[in-house]
Amino acid sequence: MSTEPKAPKIEFPHPDYPIKVIGDNAHDFKGMVVEIVQVHAPDLDIEQVTVQESGNGNYSSVRMRITATSQEQLENLHQDLKATGRVKMVL
Amino acid sequence: MTLADQLIVRELGLQPYAPIWQRMQTFTNNRTADSRDEIWLLQHEPVFTQGQAGKAEHLINPGSIPVVQVDRGGQVTYHGPGQLIAYLLLDLRRRKLGVRDLVDIIEQSIVAVLADYGINAYPKPDAPGVYVDERKICSLGLRIRRGCSFHGLALNLNMDLEPFLRINPCGYAGLEMTQVQTLVPDADLAQLPNNLVNYLVKKLGYNQITRTPILED
Predict the structure, then answer these.
(1) How far apart are CA B147 and CA A75, in angstroms?
(2) In B, which residues are within 8 Å of A85 by CB distance?
(3) Which of B49, B96, B99, B124 is most worth mutating to test chain A (most A CB atoms within 10 A of its CB)?
(4) pTM higher than 0.80 for the full model?
(5) B51-55: long-range contacts (C-beta < 8 A, 24 or more apart)?
């Protein structure tokens, strides 16, 4: 077995952890994303959440920063976003 | 029958905010795969609760009502006697529910229980909670930790709505609140909490319910 150390993982808690959620452009997409993220990361500052549309207007990208508290938190958040069926990608 | 399909409903009456909030956190932090899900039904003594990222500017004039900084998202809200609180302490992963599923189930259950009183309520796609004629009747504020939900819903029944005027409820200036008694003055509210639980239980899929007035240690 190799004992070579793996690349350092994220250290928790990790303040200002950036999240980008991409999905179909719709008027309520941001609201839905914020609602889900807030449940997992209550320190989310809604006023700092930004939305960008793709060049052709088909997609919308919602960006924000949270305090990441554990890998489990990030995985649950990711699962809940994907489970909506409206999220293409979480970065 | 497995533990996962059992639910404990605790009917706790009028309670101060802070001790219940602490019990809810302790329960969630200590629960295991052998813990049954629980719903706590209660009313709170007057209190403003401010979400973790809540803006102080939305708290206009709290007066003598205490303000508690809490560990949920969202902005400031008010709780007081005459408002039904339901805290949902559920292992969502075990029930295979996403947070969006739970929000939908709660909102649909509120709509259903109000429809029994002839009230036409509806959720909004881009804001949590349930509304009647653009006025808010039920607020939602959930938190997930370790795959389990806590906090829950606050449904206005027959309360003093004046304290909501001292804040921008949920961060929205001018958001008006309403309640069951305003809409249906002669409503008999005695069975409403029970009816709400029945709708929630049906949609969440539990098959054994234990009711108790006790908050166990």
Answers:
(1) 10
(2) none
(3) B99
(4) yes
(5) B51/A42, B51/B75, B51/B76, B51/B141, B52/A42, B52/A43, B53/A38, B53/A42, B53/A43, B53/A44, B53/A45, B53/A46, B54/B171, B55/A47, B55/B171
Residue A73 has which token pair?
A: 């938190």
The predicted complex's ipTM stands at: 0.84
B141 close to B121: Cβ distance less than 8 angstroms: no
Q: Is the pLDDT of residue B102 over 70?
A: yes
Question: Do residues A49 and A34 lie in contact, with contact meaning Cβ atoms separated by under 8 Å?
Answer: yes
Report, as residue numbers or ranges, the catalytic residues of B. 170
Identify all chain A residues contacting B93, using CB atoms and an 8 Å cutoff: 76
- A12, A27, A38, A46: best to mutate for the B interface, most B CBs within 10 A: A38
On the question of a cis peptide bond just before residue B81, with omega within 30 degrees of 0, the verdict is: no
